[in-house]
Amino acid sequence: MIFNNQVASGRNAAIRAGWNDAAWGRPHREVEAAQAPWYESGYAGGLIFRQMQRSDLSERMVVSSALPRVVPAALRPNSQAHEGHASIEIR
């Protein structure tokens, strides 16, 4: 997709452009004075979305890192294949 710096006319286009810019971490664009309030409103919403995504990602990273690592039975030490099924010798 080609990104051009122009915002289509209309309120919804300005809101969407601001939201997308903030959500994707792009800097503010220069928009026409009539569209500026709508663009800023969209940009604020996009920043909130971006912050929530970062927060959600960091929470998932913390939770997943606390779980034990699972190793397939065939790769575990002391595992033996028995009739096509892996079995584990526990000591």
Offer a quick outline of the entry.
The chain has 91 residues and is mainly alpha-helical. The protein is built from 2 helices and 2 strands; from the N terminus they run ααββ.
List keywords for this structure.
91 residues; mainly alpha; two-stranded antiparallel ribbon; 2 helices; 2 strands; 48% helix; 9% strand; rod-shaped
Tally of helical runs: 2
Read across the widest sheet, the strand sequence of neighbours is: 1-2
C-alpha-based Rg, rounded: 25 Å
The major beta sheet can be summarized as:
2 strands, antiparallel
> How are helices and strands ordered from N to C?
HHEE
Structural class: mainly alpha
User: What is the domain tally?
Assistant: 1
- Quick one: how many beta strands? 2
First and last CA, distance: 57 Å
* Low-confidence region ranges: none
Global shape: rod-shaped
What is the topological layout?
Layout: H1 11-23, H2 36-66, E1 79-82, E2 85-88
Antiparallel strand pairs: 1-2
Helix pairs in contact: 1-2
Overview of the structural elements:
The chain is mostly helical. Helix content is 48%, strand content 9%. The protein has helices spanning 11-23, 36-66, and strands at residues 79-82, 85-88. The protein has a two-stranded antiparallel ribbon with strand order 1-2. Strand 1 and strand 2 (85-88) form a beta hairpin. It is rod-shaped, with a radius of gyration of 25 Å. The model has no long low-confidence stretch (mean pLDDT 77).
